Structure formats: C-alpha cells, structure tokens
C-alpha cells in the first residue's frame, strides 16, 4: 500500500492535546484542502465557524455533553451545512429560487461531510490529531444562536484539531466482507458475530478488563430510544423544510 492508504487506515480519535498551537498558514492550508473535496454541482454548500472565544468554546463543550477537549484543542471548528449562500447567489442572478427541498438538505449535509473529511485527512498528514463532535446536535438551536447562524444554515458537527498528547490504538472496523456486496444486498450475521468477538477483546484490552461489551451491545443506546428527536423540528425552523 502507499502512504496515503496507510494514513487513512491509521485514523484514531484524539481527545487529549498538547498546548502547541497550529501555525496559521498550516491551518489555512487544511481549509483549502477541504475545499478541494467533491461538491455537488459545485454548490459548495458549507461554511466553517472557527471558534476562538474561550467563553464560546466552554459553552459549546457544555452543550455537547461535557466534552472538555473542545476547550483544550488548538483549533475548534463547527462545520455547517449552508444553503443560504448558494440560494441567495442564484436569486441575485435572477433565479426564482425554491427553498426547503429535501435534496437541498442532503446536498448541503453531504458536501459538508466530504469537505470536513478532507480537512481531517490533511490534518492527520501533518501529524495533527482530530476528534469529530457530533454532540453539538444535542442542542443545535442553542449552538446556532451562539454562533449567529442564519436561516438555511445548520451545524452538522464540530471538529477538534491539535497536536496529540495521547497515542490510542486504532479501533477495529467491520470486516470488508460485511460491508462490500456484489450486485445486490445480502445479510451476513455471521461476520457481525465474529466482529463482536473482536470488539469484546479490544474493549477488554483497552480498559484493562473493566469494559466487557461488544459492537452490537454498544449500539443499543442508539436504537432503543428516540435519538435527538428535536432535530426534525429544528431543521424545519432553520428553513430545511424537507419538502
């Protein structure tokens, strides 16, 4: 394999950072690398809020579920799906713009995720560590008010960037055979059972035997209750009507 593939396969989430700051030009190059990601019809339906205020970082850490590394990383970013800029631009060019379509929501969300992952790969190639913060969707309205996000813009996730102060193991992934299918969908419970064994061993080793669980059991909190049921109403209020 080549260095890029090796880098991608070595990804870990970093939650402890040194006090070293990312140089400004390096930071800007990461963002430029992000902008080179694929984007639907060149819409570029994303905006990034670089949160530098310690007070705002502390508030976001609280709203995201007490994730203190939001405060301690070198740079903290909030990636936003942004349909305001492209629809406003089309309107100024004379289009009779229709807003609130489900496809617009999907385009903006996908564009944002692709852009962010480019930033992540670029950051890790520079020896930086990252941690996505999906917890900002715990309180998206409060986050939006804090960052003064306008209608037709919503915060998708946060991202911690900085120099790692820990060296965690790479977390195992499902076997390729479980997720790569040919011509049609197929169920493969046997490979999941095997992966559950792998993850039980991994969690036990990582925690010195204090965590006895597997992949399937870890999924329970995501599906045995309504997860973030406020999101649909929030998105509609932001102008993503899902028409």
Describe the structure.
The chain is α+β, with helices and mostly antiparallel strands and 243 residues long. It has 2 domains: 3-170, NADH Oxidase, CATH 3.40.109; 171-224, no CATH class. The protein is 45% helix and 12% strand. The chain contains 12 helices and 4 strands. The protein has helices at 3-9, 24-35, 54-63, 69-72, 84-92, 102-125, 140-146, 176-179, 189-206, 215-218, 220-223, 231-237, and strands spanning 46-51, 75-82, 129-133, 153-162. A 4-stranded antiparallel sheet has the order 1-2-4-3, sandwiched between helices. The longest helix is centred in the middle third of the chain and has 24 residues, at 102-125. The radius of gyration is 20 Å and the shape is globular. The mean pLDDT is 95.
Topology of this protein?
Elements: H1 3-9, H2 24-35, E1 46-51, H3 54-63, H4 69-72, E2 75-82, H5 84-92, H6 102-125, E3 129-133, H7 140-146, E4 153-162, H8 176-179, H9 189-206, H10 215-218, H11 220-223, H12 231-237
Antiparallel strand pairs: 1-2, 2-4, 3-4
Helix pairs in contact: 2-6
């Amino acid at each position: 394999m080549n260095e890029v593939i090796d880098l991608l396969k070595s990804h870990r989430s970093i939650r402890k950072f040194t006090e070293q700051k990312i140089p400004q030009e390096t930071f800007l190059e990461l963002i430029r690398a992000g902008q080179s990601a694929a984007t639907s019809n060149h819409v570029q339906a994303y905006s990034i809020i670089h949160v530098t205020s310690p007070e705002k970082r502390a508030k976001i850490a609280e709203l995201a579920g007490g994730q203190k590394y939001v405060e301690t990383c070198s740079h903290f970013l909030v990636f936003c799906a942004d349909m305001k800029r492209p629809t406003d631009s089309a309107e100024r060019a004379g289009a009779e713009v229709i807003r609130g379509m489900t496809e617009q929501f999907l385009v903006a969300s996908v564009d944002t995720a692709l852009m962010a992952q480019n930033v992540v790969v670029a950051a890790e190639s520079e020896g930086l560590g990252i941690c996505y913060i999906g917890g900002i969707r715990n309180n998206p309205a409060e986050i939006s008010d804090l960052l003064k996000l306008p209608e037709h813009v919503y915060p998708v996730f946060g991202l911690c960037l900085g120099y790692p102060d820990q060296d965690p193991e790479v977390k195992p992934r499902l076997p390729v055979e479980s997720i790569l299918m040919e011509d049609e969908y197929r169920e493969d419970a046997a490979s999941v059972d095997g992966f559950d064994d792998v993850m039980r061993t991994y969690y036990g080793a990582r925690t010195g035997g204090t965590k006895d669980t597997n992949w399937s059991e870890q999924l329970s909190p995501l599906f045995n209750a309504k997860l973030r049921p406020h999101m649909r109403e929030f998105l509609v209020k932001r102008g993503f009507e899902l028409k």
